[in-house]
Amino acid sequence: MMRFSKLSLTLCLASLSGFACLAPAASAEDLYATSISGSKINKVDTNTQAVTTLVNTPSAADSLVFDSAGRIIYTQLYTGELRRYDPFTSTDTLIATGFIEPADLALEPGGNTVLVSEYLGGKIDRVDLTTDAVTTLLSPGGTPEGLIYDASGRLFANLGNRFGGPTGKYVAQIDPVTGAILATSSGMDSLDGLTFDPFTGMLFASSLFSNGVVEIDPNNLNSVSTHFFGSLNLPDGITSDGAGNIWIASAGDSHIYQYNLGANTLTQNAFVTGLDDLAPASGLGSFHSTPEPGSVTLLLAAGLAVCGLSRRRRS
Predict the structure, then answer these.
(1) What is the DSSP letter of 23?
(2) Over the stretch 134-185, which tens digit does the pLDDT of each residue have?
(3) Which of 48, 66, 137, 197 could lock 179 by a disulfide, CB 3.0 to 4.6 Å apart?
(4) CA–CA gap between residue 128 and residue 112 (Å, rounded)
(5) Which pLDDT band, with edges at 50, 70 and 90, does 224 fall under?
(6) Helices marked H in the chain — which ranges?
């Protein structure tokens, strides 16, 4: 996938039709962020806080994930579209349309489908990335938002009504086959983004109007604790890097924040104009799921050739 590191390894797959190169590896400090007002997808180096435009989108980009081929799947909030940007060919194509304010995304196990939450449509849809077919997984009503799979393959979503007050939203565990709601948390305030953190085994959800983060046990959906309520400014997208940090897109002040779990500290990071959401930094749909250089041996054993080794500076 589109990953940038000081040492980039390009692997070429020999075939009758030529060579297909896998994406270069990315450094752990890179994040990818959407800009609604700027209609952009940006790459953010959280070490230097440098922000570079990866692509200008047709209109307001809301959420994004990476597919298994390193392409970016993203939602267009106001045009009701799901689109695909290929960073290798610089092409942008429409996958599906007709959604009512499509918001958050989750790549599904296997990498062939994504789930889309329709914020104003009150539905969660499944889109086949091979056929572009759209089916409805469930129609819970309200304003569904954050979607995530945990490490054991359980699906969770933030359901309820964003404007329903302090108990208007809740986290639900959903059967990914039938769409049945298997369990729910107690009511919480304005839950928006949702992520699973493999470092702690917990779910973390942004609470938009409480200006903080809620930690939730995925095994019983009990709220474990709240973090930094009142310290953030309309937190929206949220992701875990799997290495002890939760990264939060604070839409109110357009800054990314780093929540270090070990130190229990909140640190302001890069400014991104129109900031809304962050790509998964670990797990399904992340830019870290590209084969690492350590997989070269396995690829060679399968008869694949290493066709290039190059250095690239981070922008």
Answers:
(1) P
(2) 999 999 999 999 999 999 999 999 999 999 999 999 999 999 999 999 999 9
(3) 137
(4) 6
(5) confident
(6) 296-301
Give me 60's structure tokens: 């307001």
Which one-letter amino acid corresponds to residue 86? D
Locate 96 and state its tokens. 């599906």
In one letter, which amino acid is 196? F
> Which one, of 50, 6, 49, lies nearest residue 24 by Cα?
6
Q: In this structure, which long-range contacts are made by residues 106-111, counting pairs with CB atoms below 8 Å and at least 24 apart in sequence?
A: 106/65, 106/147, 106/148, 106/149, 106/155, 106/284, 106/285, 107/65, 107/66, 107/67, 107/68, 107/73, 107/280, 107/284, 107/285, 108/149, 108/176, 108/284, 109/149, 109/153, 109/284, 111/67, 111/68, 111/284
DSSP state of 130: T
Measured in whole angstroms, how far is the alpha carbon of residue 48 from the centre of its chain?
22
Half-sphere exposure of 51 (CA within 13 A, CB side): 18
Tokens, residue 240:
């875990």
Amino acid 125 reads D
Separation CA 265–CA 128 (nearest Å):
40
**Residue 39: which residues within 8 A CB-CB, separation 6 or more?**
56, 57, 58, 59, 60, 61, 274
Q: Are 74 and 55 spatial neighbours (Cβ–Cβ below 8 Å)?
A: no
